[in-house]
Specification:
Elements lengths: L1 H15 L2 E7 L14 E7 L12 H4 L3 E2 L14 E2 L8 E8 L14 E6 L16 E11 L5 E8 L3 H9 L3 E5 L4
Antiparallel strand pairs: 1-2, 3-4, 5-8, 6-7, 6-9, 7-8
Length: 183
């Protein structure tokens, strides 16, 4: 009985002590951004069938893939969090919209936020143009820091039909950004 107890304890100790090297995230990787080697770090965890992290030996296979969601530092990387689709997707256009501090909320914009691009006239009144939608739905890809000119550039994805009009209004500084409720 003592020998069986000792064997059972030894088995339990060795099975609990088995670890595996997996990929963890070293720093925040926003949704839509390409993974680089600097974004990845090796983590050692106990094997658990409930977890499906990517083994560290597969590190080279994930470099260059795109984050399908915002990846937080310290999180384990899974295949569901990655995609090979680059931005913009077919049917979309990626546009940089330069806005002043009064043309966007003070709450920081995050990648993946749904926003409305509201055209404004030179006097900040809503712009109305025949045949052109007054408001364009967009998704935030990235929000840069304020520049020396006081403008913050926000990269957004829009439908390709809206792209040229949004780009023209953005170049003239005639767009305000409104954050809409997430689903």
């Amino acid at each position: 009985m003592v020998v069986l107890g000792a064997l059972g304890a030894t088995y339990l100790a060795t099975s609990l002590g088995q670890t595996t090297a997996v990929i963890a995230i070293a720093r925040e990787v926003p949704w839509g951004q390409t993974l680089t080697a600097a974004d990845l770090v090796e983590a050692t965890i106990s094997a658990d069938p409930a977890l499906e992290p990517i083994p560290y030996v597969d590190r080279d296979e994930v470099i260059g893939l795109v984050a399908a969601t915002t990846l937080g530092p310290g999180s384990l990387l899974t295949r569901d969090a990655l995609t090979d689709e680059r931005l913009p997707a077919p049917g979309q256009q990626l546009i940089g919209v330069g806005v002043s501090l009064v043309q966007l909320p003070t709450t920081p914009l995050r990648p993946g936020d749904d926003v409305l691009l509201v055209p404004v006239a030179a006097g900040s009144a809503p712009a109305t143009t025949q045949g052109v939608p007054s408001v364009v739905e967009a998704t935030v890809v990235n929000s840069g820091p304020p520049g020396t000119d006081g403008l913050r550039v926000v990269d957004v994805l829009v439908d390709e039909a809206d792209g040229p009009d949004v780009a023209a209004r953005a170049a003239a500084g005639l767009i305000a950004i409104v954050v809409v409720a997430g689903e």
